[in-house]
Write a structure and sequence with these properties.
24% helix; mainly alpha; 51 residues; extended; single chain
Length: 51
């Protein structure tokens, strides 16, 4: 998918979990998942941080 209009520079979009959003509820941004890095590598990185 490519967004070609309707956004301004610096605006944030939701790419996962949008089904959990409700109008008026607070949102917490969690960028710990890097979609360009394989999940298994991210899991290992997380486990290393917990040690």
């Amino acid at each position: 998918m490519e967004i070609t209009s309707g956004l301004e520079a610096g605006e944030v979009i939701v790419t996962a979990g949008q089904n959990k959003l409700s109008v008026g509820n607070p949102v917490r941004v969690d960028n710990t998942i890097n979609p360009t890095k394989p999940f298994e590598m991210q899991l290992r990185d997380t486990e290393k941080q917990e040690d």
